[in-house]
Automatic annotation (TrEMBL):
This is Kinase. Residues 103-148 are annotated as: Disordered. Its EC number is 2.7.-.-. It holds the Pfam family IPK. GO terms for biological process: inositol phosphate biosynthetic process; phosphatidylinositol phosphate biosynthetic process.
């Protein structure tokens, strides 16, 4: 599927549970997984209804009542760094624009391909589920996959209220077109194994969401760390806008004063507000963003203890200390992370997507658990923008306004260096 084929407001969704307009099941692991859960519930098996008499084609799930899984019951705003409730089953979602879905952009288990997948995700369609499409009905053949035990989703940092923890390994993030475009492109790029699988846009209570893999699904009581990568956390276009139409922000002034009452200038004090770019630059220099090209945003340890107080964690030594604490002196974990980060670096250095995008405000999400399983993925493409051709970035050249460089690879180099440094101290 070429990017040109994509309809921007109703994207050519890939990876969603797809029963295509011709009635042929394009089985996906998620459809199979989701429906095997429903089946296991032994109650009111939902009906997949494919509606193809309208354009775009859509799938709805009817008769939703699944034992042991609350549907649509969790609050809209999951508190940061806390376990989310369950609910919000994809069953309650309207999956949009399925008529053109192609397998080319399907999200495979790629995000997890280093692990043995206990779900199997065979190329089968679910058992006992009746599907209907106007003009035809049929019963899909059996599925022999055991249901996956749900794991609570945890948000470490980021905007409150932007996420819904879906069931069946899905996570919904408030829709932005820019992020959707990136996730779609990433599904076609060599970086695909390093980003959450993307499954298109879904609507819930009249709000659109980008649906992606919940990266915590395959871990038990995971420890999680969010590191924002790059030397710059605002886009060049934000800088231009701030100059053309300055919009001082009181909330950012207050956040600034909370950390350092001396930080605002006299003018800002008089205004009781700061520009966003000024706030972002202040955050960058207060933390290790400017000096190391990445900063720790938040850490949630396996015991549930969460720390998002890293605004002043700046020196290499302080960062090293925080990383050491995060890995609990476990050499196996450090080695796992280092292996993955080095692989990521190799892929980044040749990725078409990466070369042609300014990647700002994006994070690496680190996850490990007591079994020694580790994973690192790139997340948050809300401020990742395509460059005007033929401009490309090497992501290591220092930023000067106009060159669009973001320092991503330089930050990754430093992160790898520091983790390598702590290795001899682990047991
Ligand atoms: N695919 C995912 N799987 C599991 N957890 C995720 C995933 N995506 C995001 N998270 C969780 O949500 C948090 C915030 O994610 P993200 O950075 O995308 O949000 P945001 O609101 O855009 O952040 P920002 O404030 O930097 O703009 C992450 O730290 C992580 O805990
Ligand atoms: O971490 P802090 O100190 O709370 O600051 C926030 C953080 O820098 C976010 O990355 C940013 O969102 P974006 O990356 O999406 O710009 C947000 O801007 P916002 O308030 O305009 O959303 C800031 O308030």
């Amino acid at each position: 599927m070429s990017m040109g084929d994509m309809n921007h407001s109703y994207p050519n969704v890939s990876g969603v549970p797809v029963w295509s307009a011709n009635g042929k099941a394009d089985s996906t692991k998620h459809a199979a997984d989701f429906l095997s859960h429903c089946e296991n519930a032994h109650e009111n098996v939902p009906q997949l209804v494919v509606k193809c008499n309208t354009s775009p084609c859509r799938i709805e799930l009817e008769s939703i009542r699944v034992s042991g899984i609350s549907v649509g019951s969790h609050p809209d705003e999951d508190s940061i760094c806390s376990d989310s409730g369950f609910g919000g089953s994809p069953a309650s979602l309207l999956l949009r624009k399925l008529s053109n879905a192609s397998s080319s952009g399907l999200s495979p288990a790629s995000s997890f391909e280093e692990y043995e997948d206990d779900r199997g995700f065979p190329d089968e369609v679910p058992r006992g589920v009746t599907w209907k499409k106007p003009g035809s009905t049929g019963t899909l053949p059996p599925l022999s996959v055991p249901p996956k035990k749900p794991q609570p989703w945890v948000q470490v940092v980021g905007h409150a209220g932007s996420f819904h923890a879906g069931d069946y390994g899905m996570l919904l993030k408030r829709y932005t077109e820019g992020e959707q475009q990136c996730l779609q492109r990433l599904m076609e790029d060599s970086l695909r194994p390093f980003v959450p699988g993307y499954h298109g846009v879904v609507q819930r209570a009249e709000q659109d969401y980008n649906m992606m893999d919940d990266l915590l699904t395959h871990f038990n009581s995971p420890a999680i760390m969010d590191c924002k990568i790059g030397t710059r956390t605002y886009l060049e276009e934000e800088l231009t806008k701030a100059r053309e139409r300055p919009q001082p922000r009181q909330d950012m002034y207050e956040k600034m004063v909370d950390v350092d009452p001396e930080a605002p200038t006299t003018e800002e004090q008089a205004l009781q507000a700061v520009l966003k770019t000024r706030y972002m630059q202040w955050r960058e220099t207060l933390s290790s963003t400017t000096t190391l090209g990445f900063r720790i945003e938040g850490i949630k340890k396996a015991d549930g203890v969460c720390n998002t107080n890293f605004k002043r964690t700046k020196s290499r030594e302080a960062v090293k200390q925080a990383l050491q604490d995060y890995v609990d002196c476990n050499a196996l974990i450090v080695k796992g992370y280092l292996r993955r980060l080095k692989e990521l670096r190799l892929v980044l250095e040749t990725s078409d997507f990466f070369r042609t995008h300014e990647v700002v405000g994006s994070s690496l999400l680190f996850v490990h658990d007591s079994t020694g399983k580790t994973g690192v993925w790139m997340i948050d493409f809300g401020k990742t923008v395509p460059l005007p051709p033929p401009l490309t970035l090497d992501h290591r050249t220092p930023w000067e306004e106009g060159n669009r460089e973001d320092g991503y690879l330089w930050g990754l180099d430093n992160l790898i260096d520091i983790l390598t440094d702590i290795l001899p101290y682990q047991t």
